[in-house]
Write a structure and sequence with these properties.
Length: about 300
Amino acid sequence: MRPGLEQTRPGAGHLRAVRGVATPLPPGEFEHVRRAPLSSLRPYVEHLWSVRWQRPAHVSQLVATVPHPCVHWTFEAGSSTLTGPHTRLWQRLLSPEGEVLGIKFRPEGFRALWGAPICGLRDQILSASRLPALGFAHGLGERLFAKLAQEKLDARFDEIERVLCTAFALPNGEQLDVAALVDAARDDRDLLRADAWARRAGLTLRQLQRLLANWIGVSPKWILGRYRLHETLHRLQQRPIPRLADLAADTGFADAAHFSRSFRCVLGVCPKQYVRLWDQQVSQRSGLAESRAVVRAIRRRPDLIDS
């Protein structure tokens, strides 16, 4: 295995930069591979991904991400899991070795498959094998980790795509409209307020809230805040780090104090503490103690997800 991120097959250049990783790469061997989907699946799927790791048995490693506003469908040996839009810090204590294959859907992409408002999946982690909406993929996990286990990763990704192609039709107009709204929220750094987002879309704020609750499962305010936090994390992980006052201004906060409070609400530590803990882990790769400090989560607060 090679450390870090790889991309494979023509079309991978369409993948967006990785955002939301809250902890450095764990010690040992670690491989993260992403692949852009077939063109027919791009209205629904952001990318396919695989993570494999093999780490020292004596080192406990807690990894964390700040999740994107989307649904993931993951496969491991013996299990298949659907994870709805996750409003809290996602954490996992790694076993000594393992492998996960996954589908990251576009924020609005899973609604057509699910057939119901995505707000019902918010913060849910469900066994995919028990969900009628995913019955078309019966046996997929077993094939990926049995029949195809020794095949190249591309062959396993091909099987996932083959199955997905049986389930999706052409996207409707409302889905395409929501996709354009999401892309604007993610890519336009000047779009910082939910009311401004609604005006740009030609909607009232309440209309935008209902639309996004249906298609994505979270509020406009939460989505804008999550994309700002992703940019903040990325910049705090670079060296030299920016001045916090400048970073606060660039990401739309009124001042550094407001920025620090918002950061702490999700990560559990202030930006300065996070930078120090990140550097400690990068230099020492010292495992669970520092990882727990970096990714200490707070209790879920309703104001973080309300509009």
